[in-house]
Amino acid sequence: MKTTTHIALVLLLTLIWSAGCNRPASEGPSINDLFGVFEVIDSLQLTNVSPDFSSGESVGFSCKFSKPVEWNLLITGLESGSRKTFEAFSSELFAEQIVWYGNCDDVPFFLEETCEVRLSVEGEEEEYVAALQVAGVKTYSGIEVATFDVGLPDGALVWHQDGGNMTFELAQENALQGNQCFKMGGRVNWDWSLGYIDIPIDLNDVNASAEDFFLNVGVFGGMDDQFATDQYVNILLSESNAPFNDNVNNNAADIFGTGSEVYKHQIRPVDWEGWRYFAIPYSEFEVKSEGGNNVREPSEIRGIRLGLQACPFNSGNCPDNGNIEAQADVDYIMFTVGLPLLEQE
After folding, report:
1. Cα–Cα distance measured from residue 340 to residue 159, given in angstroms and rounded to the nearest whole number
2. How far is CA 104 from CA 107, 140, 198, 272, in A?
């Protein structure tokens, strides 16, 4: 009996020991990751301090820490104020992974300018700073609808109400890109619609789904904090085969009329100062007029309308709009396939 008991005890201890040996080496964060002292092992480095983004150059960033941390890398244009950010939780930035191609998180766009590079770590006071000089700005690719730098697009039509201080015209002040934008503004107390611009489009060669086809447009919200109540940019895209303008007296494109296949999207409300840039997939446009098959087909788009609307004073709903002028300028209107314009590498 003693021998049998002894053998059983040995087997039990062997099993316990074996189970301990088969445990994973680690079941969670290491002690160093949790409580280790933070240090910079390799300082912040840039692969290119004078990138010419216009020729396809880029900048890679590297740095190594003693443990994984939440870090944020911010690039700021000292003249434009443009910003590009990278952030992650890791112990190292690899130059082949953290790469800047000259794009920005939002407008304004970067210029040929000096940029500050600032690396910060959550919970640490010290920041790590470098500088670079943009030798050439990034060239974005896409299907141009309107940049307004050389005037209105060919065949464009402009209409507006006879309200107060109407400005549906080209303007050189505060352009988003280049030297001109299209200014939309004024005061119309009796109707929602103030005015619009219609632009013909030929997208026959486009081969993309509605989900992968983006309308990119910059919208300017004014220079002060006084905005008309419920002012917005109304965007229409038409797939109608009707003539673009069959009624010159109306100065508006017939392809947006009742019975045409038209889709709409509203940037609403416009209640911010300065420029913002929007990328809207065609799949998010709603049906406005059921004149076709209600299938959004980018290659069938024949025109775009960008209009300014605001709640009218005489409607009784917006008593504060009696003496306020609505404003929402537009610029740098582009279609892109696959990605929004600002996400291009």
Report:
1. 29
2. 7, 11, 29, 19
**Averaged pLDDT score across all residues of the chain:** 90
Let me know: does 157 contact 200? Beta carbons within 8 Å. no
**Domain boundaries 143-340, CATH class:** mainly beta
Tokens of 244: 């673009």
Local structure of 299: helix, strand or coil? helix
pLDDT digits (tens, 9 = 90+) for 37-76: 999 999 999 999 999 999 999 999 999 999 999 999 999 9
Task: For residues 150 and 163, give the distance between their C-alpha atoms in angstroms, rounded to a whole number.
Answer: 28
User: How many other C-beta atoms lie within 10 A of the C-beta of residue 189?
Assistant: 17
Closest to 293 in 3D by CA, of 258, 262, 257, 253: 262
Q: How many helices (H) and strands (E) does the chain have?
A: 2, 20
d(C-alpha 137, C-alpha 86), whole Å: 19
Look at strands 185-186 and 326-327 and give their pairing. antiparallel
Residue 56 tokens, joined = 């396809």
Residue 134 — pLDDT band, cuts 50, 70, 90?
Answer: very high
User: Which of 161, 51, 66 is CA-nearest to residue 112?
Assistant: 51
Of 139, 140, 143, 153, the closest CA to residue 298 belongs to: 143
Residues in the chain: 345
DSSP 3-state helix, strand, coil percentages of the chain (rounded to 5)? 15, 40, 45
Rg over alpha carbons for the chain, rounded to the nearest Å, is 29
Alpha carbon dihedral 194, 197, 198, 202, in 10-degree steps, equals -150
d(Cα 305, Cα 202) in Å, to the nearest integer?
14
The DSSP letter of residue 142 is S
Amino acid symbol at 106: D
Please report, for the chain, the start and end positions of each structural domain, with discontinuous segments joined by +: 35-133, 143-340
Tell me if the domain spanning 35-133 has CATH number 3.40.50.
no
User: What is the distance between the alpha carbons of residues 198 and 323, in angstroms, rounded to a whole number?
Assistant: 28
Cα distance between residue 257 and residue 261, in whole Å: 9
Side chain identity, residue 142: G
Query: Which amino acid is it at 1?
Result: M
Nearest partner of 155 among 67, 251, 240, 44, judged by Cα: 251
